[in-house]
Design goal:
By secondary structure, the protein is mainly alpha-helical. The protein is 47% helix and 8% strand. α1 runs parallel beside α6.
């Protein structure tokens, strides 16, 4: 039961990483498509006013955010529940930091110390560090998955990650959820890259 989910996770992570780092990515039809490596400008680009992003701690949180989550010199815009409505548009930096944190913390709360919190997880301030953090988080989660068996997949609350429904769900449902997080945020990141490339319109 785990094998198809693990295959899907590997494919989603590889496709997202290649879409950000280049020099080619899978176009979806089996052909390689050239793609330049993401720049720091793209990583932090705010396509619309009042985006949530990653910011230097000294600058404070962005519009409608009340805190900067994470550890280090940078933090990710956040707010206590209930979150602002409508949700703020989030940058590639925000989405990638969210993904990396989720993967690293869920790995720890499945097969690690089960103590890490958002306050422990560094927030990268540039695209190279952010891509590396995503790859490290993905590797940690994959390693945690390789340590579970069928009984564990059916165990409710196997993962003690504190920022989701993990305590109430069979672990296999959490594995599925993590996959869809990588898939949908990966698609969003790819779309923002496309918008950044076309932001001036062709011929301008």
């Amino acid at each position: 039961r785990l094998t198809p989910l693990l295959d899907q996770f590997d494919f989603a992570c590889a496709r997202l990483t290649s879409r950000m780092a280049g020099p080619v990515t899978d176009s979806g039809d089996g052909c390689d498509t050239q793609v330049p490596a993401m720049t720091d400008d793209e990583y932090l680009w705010e396509p619309v006013p009042d985006c949530w992003s990653v910011r230097r701690r000294g600058d404070g949180p962005g519009p409608r955010a009340t805190l900067l989550a994470g550890a280090g010199a940078f933090g990710r815009d956040a707010a206590a529940y209930p979150h602002p409505w409508p949700p703020p548009f989030t940058t590639i930096a925000w989405r990638l930091s969210h993904l990396s944190e989720m993967l690293a913390l869920r790995a720890d709360h499945t097969a690690g110390s089960r103590r890490l919190t958002r306050d422990d997880h560094p927030v990268p301030g540039d695209r190279a560090a952010a891509v590396a953090a995503f790859e490290a988080g993905a590797a940690a989660w994959r390693k945690a998955l390789l340590g579970v068996d069928d009984t564990a997949l059916d165990t409710v609350g196997l993962c003690t990650y504190p920022h989701g429904s993990d305590a109430e769900e069979p672990f296999i449902d959490i594995v599925w959820w993590v996959n869809q997080e990588v898939l949908h945020h990966g698609a969003e990141i790819a779309l923002i890259r496309d918008l950044h490339r076309e932001r001036g319109g062709r011929g301008h």
